[in-house]
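Collaborator request log, item 7. Partner lab (contact: R.S.) asked for a structural prediction of Calcium-binding protein to inform their binding assays.
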Amino acid sequence: MSITTINGNSTVRGTQGNDELTGGDGDDVLIGGFGTDTVTGGNGSDTFVLGLETTSPITDPSLADVITDFNAAEGDKIGLTGGLSGEDILLEVFDSNGDSTADGTLVKLASSPDNGILALVQGTVNAQGETTLTSTDFITTYDNTIIGTEGDDELVGDNSNDQIQGLQGNDQISGEAGDDLLKGNQGNDSINGKDGNDILLGGAGNDSLDGGDGEDFLVGGIGLDSLTGWNGGDTFVLTQETNPITDPGLADQITDFNKFEGDKIGLTVEVSVDDIVLDVFDSDGNGIVDATLVKFNNDILAVVQGTVDGQSASTLTDADFITVSDPILA
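Returned to partner:
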């Protein structure tokens, strides 16, 4: 998949496949995710986030992520997850074109038995054939990485910045304090960000996402999901299901949208706010309309509860919607 953001400071995330991620003119954060990804930051001070793909290290450079335009002079950084720092990294010059001239640097994990490759950073070799990367080019973005099993897991972070992945099964995931990245993936998951500015990704299945305190980013993904932001200016990202939804009972439920706290409803690039239709709806079946259906081409993207005024009109407006530049993991 090719994902591009044009302007502004954006967070661009890949999918579980092989992606091409391109930043714009702002200070972007680019997260490839699983797969073999090609990542280009563009102008600005960009952060390229690296992490272990699986529990098995990558030893073939052709399967590693590629960073095409790292520029330390512009303030670019390489972000490391799992509590790693620049001191945990091995740097090895590499001939990526097969012409016997080193032109890139392999970023490898020192603690891995096979020195697993995290990425190939192109254009980081000087005239003497030495890498231009140093430990100061690396920063820690997530302090802890926790990966679940194929079963039903209870995964709990700590007060640092955690990255937690549930994999298969019906998982319970809690980030605690810190700015966390929490992924349910498959199964019917319960995800709680708690304190901090968290990113919650439900994935496939019927998930319950609870942001907690802070400015959180909630993406239900495929399935019937419940999204609750709690305190702070939260963003609820809507995604289209494989088949259009016409029954409100099968659509995602946003339980506590509050525009006065800065909440927003995020639309992916495939959906324009101009194409959105807002219909009021009686969610309790008591004859009183109390929610808004967010529809795109008669496909119900979400039910937004508590968004009807005393005249039975929706309180949602175009200003409550934003376009997110990065389709999130489904």
